[in-house]
From TrEMBL:
Superkingdom assignment: Bacteria
Protein name: DUF1934 family protein
Listed InterPro entries: Calycin (IPR012674), DUF1934 (IPR015231)
Cross-referenced Gene3D superfamilies: 2.40.128.20
SUPFAM superfamilies: Lipocalins
Length: 119
């Protein structure tokens, strides 16, 4: 199950089936969603979200440094800055939650929170 919300009060909820595996120092969750083939790589200070589909994306949420995010569609091609805010994993429930802010030329344009729970 994946839930997301942003600073514009857009909320999404999707039940997906995925595969959870350990790879070196990363916990990797791969799944198919309405947005395409996705993968979330988790470590305690960093999460990388990769999506292949109509609008491919790689978002690197790092609590120790700002990262670049390239957004490309037919209408727009733009580079944004991602600032990681929070990464939490609840070992008892298996829930992973992380949040980050997206900046365009130093101006905050969105804050996104994503929660993933594997059943």
């Amino acid at each position: 199950m994946i839930k997301s919300s942003d600073s514009y009060n857009d909320k999404n909820y999707e039940i997906v089936r995925g595969e959870l595996k350990q790879s070196d120092n990363w916990l990797v969750y791969s799944y198919k969603s309405k947005l395409g083939d996705c993968e979330v790589q988790y470590s305690p200070r960093r999460v990388i979200v990769s999506r292949k589909g109509e609008v491919p994306a790689v978002i690197d949420i790092d609590l120790d440094k700002n990262t670049d995010f390239f957004y490309a569609t037919k209408e727009i091609r733009k580079k944004f800055t991602v600032v990681g805010e929070n990464i939490e994993k609840d070992e008892k429930t298996g829930k992973l939650e992380f949040s980050y802010k997206i900046y365009d030329n130093g101006i905050e344009i969105n804050k996104i929170t994503i929660s993933i729970k594997n059943y």
